[in-house]
Amino acid sequence: HLGAVLLVFFVLLAANYRMAADSRISATLIGKAHIELQVSMRAVTEFLMSEGSTFPALKLAKDSAKNVDSLMEELLLRHPSDETGQALRGKLKPAWQKMNEASKVLLAIRGMSPTDGPSLAAYARTVGFFDDVIRETLAIETTETEMAAQAERRLLLLSAGGAASALVALLLIGLQIYRV
Asked: How far apart are CA 36 and CA 42, in angstroms?
């Protein structure tokens, strides 16, 4: 009986540990994507303000876009069919694609200027899509962080329960051995 109880306990402990780790990894990945999105937007803004003359800003915008794409793909692989995966596929990825396309249009404008109408219109579109992407990113990040915290609390309770059970079992064994 004790062996079966221990087996169930360790299976539950391992499953909860895995859930906590997976949620924490996903929260970290979406957090990294959030940072890359901000870097991308900053680079696009710098490129506009420098009237297209800052090559490092252009490179940074392109590199951060690639980083967001790879983080998004990694998240999609981690969440093929769950609620987070649905939010990624249904909301975040389409919003990111719109922002990325708007950024590419802006970065391709020849003779751009912060006072030029077409440049400002392209920038405004990019900023609008950026707001949508950040809103979706924050929603997913919050959900994943809360899921990780819940799994970690369950893990803590299971560990405390296991420790208490082990202590009781040792006391009972001690009573059996040293019964007077």
From this structure: 10
